[in-house]
């Protein structure tokens, strides 16, 4: 068996085509969506991610608003920029690129974002709405994972899903999304305290690896025909590597590789959240 590749790039491009139509419809109403980014410091990875987000905006017709700050930016200075974007009518939504330099309080910065402009879906109020099942911006990577699975007709209703990693950007919110009635999956959330990870993975119909541990998910752990999505990213001397061993391709029924799987979907959902916010104005 060779897995069907869950092609995040192709799916992203299809979503961009749809978003372009919606952006043109907004323009006819005199509404121009604007996506902002706040980037602090000189981390090459962060700069690459932000550049990719603004390149995507150009493809869809969303205005880019970029605020790049030096690494020695104070918490007060960061909050001033956040307040500026909160008040800017040209900014439909924005995100704070994480991680921030160690001297800055990321939680305080995220909490200061206007929840209605939270394109990343990570504001405490919006995460609370997710728990309560209320409408609000949804976290981009978990939303992208579900959209990718649906577009490839991977069955979700009644599926056993094992999520490896309990981070606030992927693992925890993904479990909440998958257990909505619209998805109706059964979710097991694994982490460093899980006693027998292999046992939890091997019974899963869908495996989402988001631990940041290279080749953590090996072929012998995967049920033949399962869908496996590699979300983890680790920088090594050999380059970026994911959480899923390459040999899993020969066992899984579907595979979202790293790169090219979930990553492009995160940006697609970021732009989707921004367009949705503009459509609600």
From TrEMBL:
Residue ranges constituting the Tetrahydrofolate dehydrogenase/cyclohydrolase catalytic domain according to the UniProt record: 6-120
InterPro entries according to UniProt: Aminoacid_DH-like_N_sf (IPR046346), NAD(P)-bd_dom_sf (IPR036291), THF_DH/CycHdrlase (IPR000672), THF_DH/CycHdrlase_cat_dom (IPR020630), THF_DH/CycHdrlase_CS (IPR020867), THF_DH/CycHdrlase_NAD-bd_dom (IPR020631)
Record EC number: 1.5.1.5, 3.5.4.9
UniProt cross-references to CDD domains, sorted A to Z: NAD_bind_m-THF_DH_Cyclohyd
Record keywords: Amino-acid biosynthesis, Histidine biosynthesis, Hydrolase, Methionine biosynthesis, Multifunctional enzyme, NADP, One-carbon metabolism, Oxidoreductase, Purine biosynthesis
A Gene Ontology BP annotation from the UniProt entry: tetrahydrofolate interconversion
Catalytic activity: (6R)-5,10-methylene-5,6,7,8-tetrahydrofolate + NADP(+) = (6R)-5,10-methenyltetrahydrofolate + NADPH; (6R)-5,10-methenyltetrahydrofolate + H2O = (6R)-10-formyltetrahydrofolate + H(+)
Residues that bind NADP(+): 165-167, 233
Biological or metabolic pathway of the protein: One-carbon metabolism; tetrahydrofolate interconversion
GO cellular component: cytosol
Domain Tetrahydrofolate dehydrogenase/cyclohydrolase NAD(P)-binding positions: 139-280
Highest taxon in the source lineage: Bacteria
Keyword flag Hydrolase: yes
Gene Ontology terms for molecular function: methenyltetrahydrofolate cyclohydrolase activity; methylenetetrahydrofolate dehydrogenase (NADP+) activity
Similarity comment: family membership: Belongs to the tetrahydrofolate dehydrogenase/cyclohydrolase family.
NCBIfam families: PRK14193.1
Summary of subunit composition and partner proteins: Homodimer.
Purpose: Catalyzes the oxidation of 5,10-methylenetetrahydrofolate to 5,10-methenyltetrahydrofolate and then the hydrolysis of 5,10-methenyltetrahydrofolate to 10-formyltetrahydrofolate.
Protein's recorded name: Bifunctional protein FolD
Protein source organism: Actinophytocola algeriensis
